[in-house]
Design a protein that fits this description.
Glycosyltransferase; mainly alpha; 5% strand; two-stranded antiparallel ribbon; 13 helices
Amino acid sequence: MFWLDSPAHARWLEHHTDLLLAFGLPAATAPAGFAWLDNEGKPDPSRPLELWIAGRMTHIYCLGAALGRPGCAELADHGLSALTRWFADENHGGWHSSVTWNGEPRAGRKEAYAHAFVVLAAASATAIGRPGAKALLNEGLEVFQTHFLDADSGLVVDGWDTTFTDLDPYRGANANMHWVEALLAAADATGQSVWRNRALTILSELINVQARAAAWRVPEHYDSSWRQIPEYNQDKPNDQFRPFGVTPGHGLEWSRLVLEARAALGGAAPAWMLEAAQGLFSRAVDDGWAADGEPGFCYTTDFDGRPVVRHRLHWVAAEAIGAAATAYRATGQKEYAKWYERWWDYVARYVIDRRHGSWHHELDDAGHVSADMWDGKPDIYHAVQATLIPRLPLAPSLAAALAGGLLDAQ
């Protein structure tokens, strides 16, 4: 029996979910949102409160509430309050990228990436029936259509100034990827298929066209006309959000999202989606896994699949687990179940911090804890989802599935 079919393994996943939810609790001590946590799980008051963390943590504690974990609904409501009271820009619309611990806005651009997590949080909260969630979701989707949706291409632009007057010419696949996740959740929460179709448009262009033409390596960086910029950030290859080259972890994340969208679309799903998901998975594994002879996924490669940044980031391992689980559910092919087990073994040995809790966010290429790119353990989004995706069907999205009683139902 593969672990993915084992009730005993599901119990282990459940226990790990609870450990991660407990680790994140101190983050909510920040009055205006969720604090950045250090390596020991202590809130770091030297850092501002980030919008992307507020959205992610609100989403995660909505999942905890749907799991019936006492206290999680209160934390979800804390996040909703932060998003509606402190992060919301009442003058220009949208949400501030960061605020102080007491809720004072800080200067910064309005990024599509962070706004996607506002919609994801609001959709998850709507799915579990939290007060005020539906209004927040409607507002988030309106901001999406007004400011971040490029009507000509159907893709997502990347960022604006605070007043939504100066549009950044850069276009990025990463923000589009997280909007796919948010739009699928929004479709489930609202019952409106338009959001699912918006997600499909993004997938059709960035995966079926761009990634297919690149041998299933996902091109990350584009100009304002959606022309690729292959040399982007060549002088900053280890950028946290816009690294040079190809990111195997994103290939795995896209693979999962393609299969989740395919399941959500049902009979309306285009035929290319399964092939694309499998192609993305295989390319990411061939390029990224143990590419330098050591366990783990390198952060980035060049366009021929050669490692560029060899550090191992925790979110890549989490997305690998989720991708393997969804591929196995979609195909029944045992190779995916075997990869799933291999990657959990890797995480258990190298990534889980058994002393302080949660997962080490960064390792060097020898498997030692590092902080060259990520200091501390900012949030628990990727790790928690890695424990839940294997226990849920491919559709609907996580909160809707939990609210619908679909845990361990496949």
